Amino acid sequence: MSNDTARNPLLPKDQSAPMAQDFSINSRTSSRKRRLRRSRSAPRGDFTYNDNDVKLDEPHPHPSKNPMFRDLNPNLRRVILLLALYLTVGTLCFYLVRNQISGHKTNGVLDAVYFCIVTMTTVGYGDLVPNSSTSRLLACAFVFSGMVLVGHLLSRAADYLVEKQETLLVRAFHLRQSFGPTEILKELHTNKLRYKCYVTFLVLVVLFLTGTVFLVAYEKMPVIEAFYCVCSTVTTLGYGDKSFNSGTGRLFAVFWILTSTVCLAQFFLYVAELNAETKQRELVKWVLTRRITNNDLEAADLDEDGVVGAAEFIVYKLKEMGKIDEKDISGIMEEFEQLDYDESGTLTTSDITLAQTASQIQR
């Protein structure tokens, strides 16, 4: 009995061999398709996450083995150090020129920190005002450096802290569904910006309520005036007719002003990014659902051989989606040609070795 018949004894000998051949062809075709869709160096999941994402399947480290500050995200740790340095230098400078700052004063050190925060966030109530050349030059220096710190560094810290709360928000939205770690990470990957907007908005609401309640309770403002003061502060409008005048109020303002102004800026940033992402998804959907024409095939034929391969088709679709452009493709092709040492149109280990050796000799 032949091997083909032995594989399937229920079929006649003349039918078994063609079926085995078709099966072999289909297997090779399927294998090629899988290689096109997935690189061996790429993660095998449907989504990826970086070190900043929450890893739900890992146990939490024991607090005694890992000090809290050492385990902080590097970006957050750098922000904390720079903010501490900024506030220390600013407080010292404004404390030394405290007699050159006019307005309603409470405590020398507290007023210096408060004035530093108000200057840094560009709130500028006007309850404390520099009245000499030295203090005015210091205010100019600290307002510009403060804007850089808030815009570039504190936004990273806020982004990191918001990401830490996204998992809780996903669980809350899908409370009645059985959402495991894998489903949560996939949901975060798909709707990341949307959940960031939700988290930041909730934090903003809490900050608005906290600020309003505090002004009513400690600064003795009516509710409407307290809410007005909160709005003018968070938006850095700072008319100055309403502000924190007591020592307790300024101590609260040191933390609250910094948090609320950064949170509002992040919220607007997330909304803008979400709008751009929504438009991008609509474009991708249109590209993937529209009919392919002969003109499309002609445009996708990069090597002009009359046949469009899978790689050429993918590149064409990515160009339509706006993911890449001609400049990107030219740069990649230039690198490919440099690595293709034997000019065979394919890359092998020997090509890369020879190309790197030639590059080192040229250097």
What is the structure about, briefly put?
With 363 residues, this protein is mainly α. Helix content is 67%, strand content 2%.
Global structural class? mainly alpha
Amino-to-carboxy terminus distance: 65 Å
Could you give the order of strands across the largest sheet?
Answer: 1-2
The SSE string, one letter per element, is: HHHEHEHHHHHHHHH
Total helical segments: 13
Note the beta-strand portion.
under 5%
- Structural Rg: 31 Å
The biggest beta sheet is recorded as:
2 strands, antiparallel
Sum up the overall morphology in one term: elongated
Low-confidence stretches: 1-16, 27-69
According to DSSP, the number of beta strands is: 2
Helix coverage percent of residues?
55-70%
Q: Mean of residue pLDDT?
A: 75
Pick out its properties:
363 residues; disordered N terminus; two-stranded antiparallel ribbon
SSE layout and pairings?
Elements (H helix, E strand, L loop, with lengths): L2 H5 L5 H25 L36 H23 L4 E3 L4 H13 L7 E3 L2 H41 L7 H10 L1 H27 L4 H12 L12 H43 L4 H7 L9 H11 L5 H14 L9 H14 L1
Antiparallel strand pairs: 1-2
Helix pairs in contact: 3-4, 3-5, 4-9, 5-6, 5-7, 5-9, 7-8, 7-9, 10-11
What this model shows, in words?
The chain is mostly helical. Helices cover 67% and strands 2% of the residues. The protein contains 13 helices and two strands, in the order αααβαβααααααααα. The radius of gyration is 31 Å and the shape is elongated.
